[in-house]
Amino acid sequence: MYQQMIFVNLATGDLGAARKFFTALGYEINAQFSDETTASIPLGDTIVVMLHTPEKYAEFTKKQIVDSTTSSEVLLALSAETREKVDELVEKAVAAGGQVTGETQDHGFMYGRAFDDLDGHTWEVVWMDPAAVEG
User: Fold this and answer.
1) What whole-number distance in Å separates Cα of residue 93 and Cα of residue 22?
2) How far, in Å, CA of 132 to CA of 111, rounded?
3) In what order do the strands lie in the sheet with 122-128?
4) Please, are residues 90 and 115 in contact by the beta-carbon 8 Å criterion?
5) What is the pLDDT of residues 9-64, one digit of tens each?
């Protein structure tokens, strides 16, 4: 069966620092689709983050590229296997230079936290009790 993929394309002000940041979170760079202007970072089988220099990113759009440290262009949400994995990823992000953003959300059946990466892109990390999803 076909699995649709999502490619999240983001501009980064410092590609080298962004590469280090995401590898510090435990992700690997896919060298086959990376070069001096782009880093391809698979987050799973169907999600790939494509980090681009501003010049490369501008090749894909005629719109102005926002300064993601002062403006929000997108909120990205990642699922986590457990509450502890939520905390683990956010702690790795902070240790790698990211910033915690927003308040911890704890609803018992759902738990989430968020961080901004080095370029100010907001990443939410959320765990939801599978029993709550099943109804």
Assistant:
1) 8
2) 12
3) 75-79, 122-128, 110-116, 99-106
4) yes
5) 999 999 999 999 999 999 999 999 999 999 999 999 999 999 999 999 999 999 99
**Helix extents (H) in the chain:** 15-24, 54-58, 83-95, 130-134
> 90 with 74: CB under 8 angstroms?
no
Q: With beta carbons less than 8 A apart as the criterion, state whether 129 and 110 touch.
A: yes
Q: How many CA atoms lie within 13 A of 125 on its CB side?
A: 23
* Nearest alpha carbon to residue 65 among 18, 120, 107, 28: 120
Per residue in 111-135, pLDDT (tens digit) is 999 999 999 999 999 999 988 877 6
Please name every residue paired with 51 in a beta bridge, in sequence order, or none if there are none.
10, 39
